[in-house]
Amino acid sequence: MTESGKPILYSYFRSSCSWRVRIALALKGIDYETVPINLIKDGGQQFSKDFQALNPMKQVPALKIDGITIHQSLAIIEYLEETRPTPRLLPQDPKKRASVRMISDLIAGGIQPLQNLSVLKQVEEELQLTWAQNAIISGFNALEQILQSTAGTYCVGDEVTMADLCLVPQVANAERFKVDCTPYPTISSINKRLLVLEAFQVTHPCRQPDTPTELRA
Amino acid sequence: MTESGKPILYSYFRSSCSWRVRIALALKGIDYETVPINLIKDGGQQFSKDFQALNPMKQVPALKIDGITIHQSLAIIEYLEETRPTPRLLPQDPKKRASVRMISDLIAGGIQPLQNLSVLKQVEEELQLTWAQNAIISGFNALEQILQSTAGTYCVGDEVTMADLCLVPQVANAERFKVDCTPYPTISSINKRLLVLEAFQVTHPCRQPDTPTELRA
Lengths: 217, 217
Known about the structure:
The structure is a homodimer.
Chain A (H helix, E strand, L loop, with lengths): L7 E4 L4 H12 L5 E4 L12 H6 L7 E4 L2 E4 L1 H11 L10 H17 L1 H4 L1 H4 L7 H23 L11 H15 L8 H11 L2 H5 L15
Parallel strand pairs in A: 1-2
Antiparallel strand pairs in A: 1-3, 3-4
Helix pairs in contact in A: 1-3, 1-8, 4-7, 4-8, 8-9
Catalytic activity (chains A, B): RX + glutathione = an S-substituted glutathione + a halide anion + H(+); 4-maleylacetoacetate = 4-fumarylacetoacetate
GO biological process, one term (chains A, B): L-tyrosine catabolic process
Organism (chains A, B): Mandrillus leucophaeus
């Protein structure tokens, strides 16, 4: 927390996991300060001694709040949900909550880890794009099918949930890696409906304190 | 559910994600039937049309329970926790719950996905062992440090939590991939204390209905 008591989010404008948490903070109206951690500059600021003390996984996001530091985006969102329940990001019905967590984990555990920067660095440079695309395509094939039985206006029913906070940043990654999203009409239309919401707009990678001028919009 | 109303777990004896769920079911005393899905035989039974209809991600575990099918191990465990709360696998204090979920996500999202079978298949054969070891070592380096501030008898305090259900199967994977665990005394001693508990013993990969005879113990 800052001296003013505000939570501090360690974030990188382009990190899809950071974006998930930014949306949760925005939806719940939690005022916070951003400390940018540039994953490229200085060989990666996440490797600094100071940051490693905060998050030994050397990843963003990390959130300092209520006297503790939490990392892992879904763990952060679940904590926010339990301590700041309004508006809720998990439905009341346990079966719908299971759907939300299943979709969130599919993206956060089944797609994103395989296409993130630190993994791609271990793959030969000319294979990196295909590697990332394969991870996204294989996950989206499954996700498109799952959404057909869970979705309403958004991923699960008609309320914005944690699953939507995972979906939009993952679709942005898909676009960055030039994945053709035509085979995913459900994913694409939910993404479109979410992107017009204020909480998704103000937290967008092109509008962060650390967004480079040439990428701002 | 079976005709008898028992939940059905689609599981593979060696799958660390299936093991997490088996422990949860055992701890909560939930009687269930196992349908083995052999990830190797027949080119991988998870790719069959029938199984893909159950889990489009083509992964175990999946649990049929209460008229729904849930996949993603942590989503399953959270559902069991919400619908069968005793004994609890998440502490009452939200800050401790955050620690449990942080450790669980670190393993389930930050280590296991990078060393699982489907990913290793994409890596050149002579590099597979090193690839898996690197993922585990990098995660364990972080985890060892985190546990130093969260652990009591187990990963978070003195009660068995979801984090422990992730830890033990991941240590088993580390051993399978010949990772030297000497640098991780906290991980190793918690693992040792957990392995003697009945719920961890009866769910062990060497004691499943689909465990091959030569691996049984």
